[in-house]
Specification:
Layout: E1 4-5, H1 6-22, H2 24-29, H3 40-54, H4 61-75, H5 78-94, E2 100-101, H6 103-119, H7 129-143, H8 150-168, H9 173-178, H10 183-199, E3 228-235, H11 241-249, E4 252-259, E5 263-270, H12 273-280, E6 285-293, H13 294-302, E7 307-312, H14 319-324, E8 328-330, E9 333-336, E10 339-342, H15 349-354, E11 364-366, H16 370-380, E12 386-391, H17 399-411, E13 417-421, H18 426-441, H19 446-456, E14 460-465, H20 470-475, H21 480-489, E15 492-498, E16 501-508, H22 511-528, E17 531-538, H23 542-556, E18 563-565, H24 568-574, E19 579-585
Helix pairs in contact: 1-3, 1-4, 1-10, 3-4, 3-5, 4-5, 5-6, 6-7, 7-8, 7-10, 8-10, 16-17, 18-19
């Protein structure tokens, strides 16, 4: 009797990954459900690649399955990736300690995995991945009864799933409207094709998926009720799964909980990712976070531009400017009690400062990971020819160096990434990003764009009103002795930047004194250099920023380009109540 061992199982995923990777572009192009954000191919490829990278190929079936199921939870990405991970963990939960397994036993595991997957979904929808998985399970069960070779069973099961795929189109109006099948369902069929190819000894050649270019795709437009595709990997001890589901229901839809032996991955579409992670903290230890802006991704998918602006989350821009101009924002990591949160996404200023007393140590920032940067550039080059990156001052953060190193490696392979050290942060970094947007819209050459942006870095000024020395002292931006003395006598500092580094501009005992000093400097700069544009930002101080809006609109003679809240990465240093004005001068 033919048996399936651990190596066979590993090769199923290896071959399945090949077929999915080869069709990544097509899977992205036909992605219309649950939202048309064009990333199903990327998500499935990422998930399978992580499984193969993180798992081990054992001879024992159960050992390979244990390794693969754990890696699936770690690597699951997006709606389709998390469903795939739940399928894998369904196999594991249904499996005994098999060293090797018959095709009948394997068919039973697939049937159990289908049930396990459906139960994890808050709203199972037919015509999608679960329908195709059901079809594959049906065929495996029926064909395994006929005492035929493994290769025939898997070949016939794949053919049945492939034929069923076209019929699923009629199950969902959005599929009929766009004349496509569900992208995730096709992904499963491609995986089944890989399984069949392995057992039938078919020759399969891998391709470099990073070099595949996306052709013009359909323009999919839909209303997105919940904007952020949010995922968290948790380590748990005693989990109340029903309570977790109930808690998450308040924040969105498309909820999937893929549960392993000690870890689980949560997927949800929400408008409040920061509240989701605050809730997840109550159920386990958060090991990783991922948040994708599906509205922005849909806009990018439909965009005709071949050039894109990228910045980090320390650049304070209004959400409207970011969305309207398809600006890609790399989140800075905020470290809280050993957990890494994503600036402006999974942590907000309100949540941070309302819960500051719960933290065992003061929050710190960390640069984006090399892997995050690599994945981002890989994804962007599927759509764009040129990438312009404006970063926080390299003298304030290691973010510039991390991005520049990876960009240099890709530029050596004939990619076009231009990384500019803004020599700024917060609102003035945001204003430079706005200038990059304007230059691209004006159809300037890449040389003109880079030269202009680099010249602007020396024409900026930022003045930050701190309500207290407290937070700058706790974060280490101000020496403890200076901070304690300032707090003791009630001084309020004004912070600025000089040569890309933080510096004190002045002090006052009252807000009126701070404002008077700022007004004096701005009037001087207006007379000497002229002010091209300015903007205002704040940390939980709507009252003062509104006053500044009226004041400086009158003084400068124009309204600010935008008013927005500062990043949490900056708020750690400036603190509650801080307000900043940043501007670009006409001349140096």
């Amino acid at each position: 009797m033919e048996m399936i061992n651990g190596n066979d199982l590993f090769q199923m995923f290896n071959y399945g990954n090949t077929f999915i990777s080869n069709k990544r572009k097509h899977l992205n192009d036909i992605n219309v459900f649950p939202v048309p954000d064009g990333d199903t191919g990327n998500n499935l490829t990422y998930t399978l690649n992580t499984i193969l990278r993180e798992s081990k190929n054992y001879k024992s079936f159960i050992d390979s399955l244990d390794s693969i199921s754990e890696a699936a939870l770690i690597g699951a990405r997006g709606n389709s990736g998390v469903i795939f991970a739940q399928f894998v963990n369904g196999l594991r939960f249904a499996s005994n300690d098999y060293e090797e397994i018959t095709i009948k036993e394997f068919a039973r595991l697939v049937r159990a995995a289908h049930t396990h997957t459906v139960s994890s979904l808050s709203n199972p929808v037919e015509g999608t991945m679960i329908t195709i998985l059901d079809c594959w399970a049906d065929s495996l069960e029926s064909e395994s009864e006929k005492k035929q070779p493994l290769k025939e069973v898997f070949k016939l099961a794949y053919e049945y799933a492939r034929e069923s795929l076209e019929r699923t189109k009629a199950m969902l109006d959005v599929l009929v409207k766009n004349d496509v099948v569900d992208s995730g369902a096709l992904g499963f069929v491609l995986f089944f094709k890989g399984v069949s190819s392995y057992f039938n000894n078919e020759k399969v050649e891998l391709v470099d998926t990073e070099t595949v270019e996306i052709e013009d795709a359909h323009e999919f437009v839909t209303e997105i009720k919940f904007r952020y595709c949010t995922e968290g990997l948790l380590k748990y001890n005693d989990l109340d799964e029903e309570k977790l589901k109930s808690d998450l229901n308040a924040f969105g839809d498309s909820i999937i909980i893929a549960k392993g032996k000690t870890r689980l991955r949560v997927h949800i579409h929400t408008n409040n990712p920061e509240h989701v992670f605050s809730t997840l903290e109550e159920h386990g230890q958060i090991e990783s976070q991922k948040i994708d802006d599906m509205l922005l991704e849909m806009n990018i998918k439909n965009a005709k531009d071949k050039r894109v602006v990228v910045t980090d989350s320390i650049a304070d821009l209004s959400p409207e400017i970011i969305l309207d101009n398809n600006v890609i924002v790399i989140p800075i990591n905020i470290m809280l009690n050993g957990t890494s949160y994503l600036d402006k996404l999974s942590i907000s200023n309100k949540l941070l400062f309302n819960n500051l007393g719960k933290f065992t140590e003061y929050p710190k920032t960390a640069t984006p990971s090399i892997k995050f940067i690599n994945d981002l550039f890989s994804k962007l080059f599927l759509k764009f020819d040129e990438i312009f990156v404006i970063t926080v001052s390299k003298k304030l953060s290691g973010t510039y160096e991390v991005i520049k190193r990876e960009a240099d490696k890709l530029n050596a392979k004939n990619k076009n990434i231009y990384v500019i050290d803004s020599k700024n942060n917060s609102v003035t970094e945001g204003l430079i990003v706005m200038k990059a947007i304007e230059l691209i819209k004006s159809d300037k050459t890449k040389e003109e764009i880079v030269e202009t942006l680099e010249s602007l870095t020396n024409k900026t000024n930022i003045l930050v009103c701190l309500d207290t020395f407290k937070y700058a002292t706790m974060s280490g931006r101000v020496p403890k002795a200076v901070g304690k003395f300032g707090m003791f006598i009630g001084l309020r500092p004004i912070m600025s930047l000089a040569d890309g580094k933080g510096t004190a501009f002045g002090f006052a005992f009252r807000q009126k004194g701070i404002t008077k000093k700022i007004v004096k400097l701005i009037k001087r700069d207006m007379e000497k250099n002229g002010i091209n544009s300015y903007a205002l930002v704040h940390c939980l101080n709507e009252k003062l920023v509104k006053e500044y809006n009226l004041l400086f609109t009158t003084i400068i003679g124009q309204e600010p380009k935008y008013i927005t809240e500062i990043s949490t990465a900056t708020a750690i240093h400036s603190g509650v109540g801080s307000v900043a004005i940043g501007y670009i001068k006409d001349n140096e």
